[in-house]
Amino acid sequence: MNSKIYSSAALALSGEVRDGMTIMSGGFGLCGVPSDLIMALKASGAKDLTVIGNNVGCDDHGMWHVLANNQIRKVLASYVGENKILESRYMSGEIEIEFNPQGTLAERIRAGGAGIPAFYTRTGYGTKVAEGKETRQFPGQDGVPEWYVMETGLTADIAFVKAWKADAEGNLIYRKTARNFNPMMATAGKLVIAEVEEIVEIGELAADAIHTPGIFVDRIVLGSGYSKHIERLTTRPRAVAAAAGEQF
Q: Pfam families from the xrefs (predicted)?
């Protein structure tokens, strides 16, 4: 069996990236972001990309680097704050954004990975989210008909996921909230590349602890040089904290 482990993110992407591709990338804010793969995507120079993710990074972090390099044409996301470049380019018509309620985005990705072409949800009915989409009535819990919006499943040419541990077969474990969108994206990409913090021996991961089975993962990259960033630092004035009895 050919090894799924690649020595660098650049090698894992080599020969796979082209203009016009759709890329899914895991993460929520600055948590669970496959940063090495994102930087390799930037270095590839691929243009006119469609990017699917909760957000598009924030200034100087995550997918922001690919956006700042003028490589993205369209974004499907649920949150676009903290990104001045995205705001500017959207307002000037340089980039297209398809806004999704966060739960709807997650379900669209899960549905795409499960082979479900579309589903109905009440979320967004009667708002701009539903404009141009099919709507239909179904009985509610009390039997009274409710309006629903049809949403389509999402897939991608390549999915980047970030995991805590992997074995050589590609079985993955995510750590706490860094799991976020990563497991569902691992099912929805034609090519799935996992960036991980540690690679262990086959059999070392307990079977019932595995979040993503290796059958979904095509390539593995060992990441390095991680540092914890704080998106927005908020502190209490010392006088207020002291009055509340907090210790320093």
A: CoA_trans (PF01144)
